[in-house]
Amino acid sequence: MLRAFAVMLVIYNHSILIDFNNQYTTSYQADFFELQYWTSIGLDLFFVISGLIMAIVTRSYLKNPSGWFNFSLKRMVRIVPLYWFYSVLVFIERHVIKHAVSHGQILKTLIFFPLFSAKNTTYPIIDQGWSLTYEMYFYLLIVVFLFFRFKNTIPLLLGTMVILATAGYFIDPADLTLKFLTTPILFEFSLGMVVGIAYHYITTHKNEVKHKIIRYTGIVATSVGLLLMLSSIFNNGRYISDPDFVTTNNIIALHRVLIWGLPCSIFVLGILFLEFSYKWVIPPILIKIGDASFSSYLVHILIIIGFEKSYNLLGFKNGDLFIIGASVLSIFISLPLYKYIEKPLLNFCNRLFFKSGKKSAGA
Questions:
Q1: Quick one: pLDDT at residue 61?
Q2: Any idea what the Cα angle at residue 107 is, between residues 103 and 108, rounded to 5°?
Q3: Domain-located, residue 335
């Protein structure tokens, strides 16, 4: 459900920004306070969720000497094939419209980790794939700690990420590669891990925890987190929403963490504690959208651009209708893409790399 909310915010954000040049009539949504930038908060929600999930699933790899390899292979199988598949489609689309793709973009897409020029970030072929470099860096840190099989791996990993992010803020190195390695964005994964540790504790100590305290904590955290998230819509989010600034300025990156990442983590903690306290029935459509969130994230820009061309051909000029139409279409086209492309591709790769056959789609 949380992944569904996150990807819907990201899609909505890009639907607004594509109409940012005001080619249509005035959009009330684009002009509503800082909504056009605020919706980038969906990415921060994704980072927190990622930290949460990894804090839980990493435990299953701790006792196995080859856990580091199994973990890294599982993560690669989950992300790389689909990412490269859609990158090829975007490459073809850009070739058709004669939009050049640099060698740096191709290499960045293949290896994920950033290859920076002197002053600017090098983006992968899929522009929004810049965020996957942070995901892969997070996974790499996990692999390192799994490889050395440190005692108290998760606390040590968490502490290392906090140290790196803190150093990145205070030093703010001029070298952009060092800036990436010490990015305060690591705080968002760390916050997610803290949530995951707390959730793991209450679910494994059900007979010891006071359920009334958990319930009240869930109510307060959900309310406070949501209030902080929504109130940030009044802040100027131009700089903290722009990856050009976030990836090149660690001070701005920390501001993003404080304004968006921290409230998201409080909200997620509250939701999980409420889930623990109450028997919720999540609407199936939200579960499906959440399952398809990776496909949605990778392909929605292509869908929005395609919708934009059709919208223009039909002569429509209403900006608000465009934003809503592009967002809804992107979400629902992603559902069959997940069913008929992502799942079969994932199942094929799992059969190829894992002896046990089909694996679940995972996180």
A1: 92
A2: 115
A3: no
What element of type H or E holds 162? helix 153-171
Closest CA to 138 of 57, 64, 47: 47
Most confident of 13-17, 113-117, 158-162, 309-313: 158-162
Average pLDDT estimate for 337-350: 95
Burial class (CB in 10 A: 0-12, 13-18, 19+), 302: middle
In this structure, are residues 6 and 293 in contact, taking their beta carbons and an 8 Å threshold?
A: yes
Q: Of how many residues is the chain composed?
A: 363
Determine the structural domain holding residue 188 and report its residue range.
Answer: 33-280
Q: Which two tokens stand for residue 283?
A: 């609407």
Q: What is the mean pLDDT of the chain?
A: 91
For the chain, what is the total number of helices (H) and then of strands (E)? 18, 0
Residue 287, in any domain of the structure: no
**Residue 131: what are its φ and ψ, rounded to 5°?**
-70, -25
pLDDT tens for 38-49 read: 999 999 999 999
- Copy the structure tokens of residue 57: 């699933």
Task: Tell whether pTM > 0.90.
Answer: yes
Contact indicator for 196, 273 with CB cutoff of 8 Å? no
* 195-224 pLDDT tens trace: 999 999 999 988 888 889 999 999 999 999
Is 37 domain-assigned? yes
Tell me how many domains the chain contains: 1
Q: Give CA separation, 287 vs 3, 262, 284, in Å.
A: 9, 24, 5
Domain-embedded: residue 48: yes
